Amino acid sequence: TLSPSQHYIVVMADAEVQLPAEKSEEELEARHEREEEELQAKGKAHVEEAREKAGKGKKAKQAVEAAEREVEQWLYELKERQKDEMDLLQEHLSGGAPATKAGYPA
């Protein structure tokens, strides 16, 4: 049996999600908004850098498209992690012991 003070971990494809330090859903949502804003800014800079370095032509367009896909992947992974964190926090706040996606305790 896991105690409420323990950190719970969800093992994803190549990342671990721990029970967040935030004590409420509102605090967690605020952090998630900040993370998303920061990542959006990082992604915009990444695409702009690719655009500046690429020059013109077909290969340049491909480089920019690749950078855009990378940013989309970063945002997807962030959203997935944030969803898992919220699920863990909600489970913890309701008094249950969170489980991994496979349904087994971490």
Structure write-up:
This protein is mainly alpha-helical. 62% of the residues lie in helices and 6% in strands. The chain is built from two helices and two strands, in the order ββαα. The chain has helices at 25-54, 58-93, and strands at 9-11, 16-18. Strands 1-2 form a two-stranded antiparallel ribbon. Helix 1 runs antiparallel to helix 2 (58-93). The N and C termini lie close together (11 Å). Mean pLDDT is 81; it is low at 1-14 and 99-106.
The amount of helix comes to 55-70%
Could you say which overall geometry the principal axes of the C-alpha atoms support? elongated
Care to count the β-strands?
Answer: 2
Strand order of the largest sheet: 1-2
Strand content: 5-15%
Main beta sheet strand tally, sense and closure: 2 strands, antiparallel
- Give helix and strand order, one letter per element, not per position: EEHH
Number of helices: 2
Whole-number average pLDDT?
81
Unreliable stretches? 1-14, 99-106
What structural class do you assign from the helix and strand content?
A: mainly alpha
Q: What is the terminal-to-terminal distance?
A: 11 Å
Write down the Rg: 18 Å
List the helices and strands and how they pair.
Elements: E1 9-11, E2 16-18, H1 25-54, H2 58-93
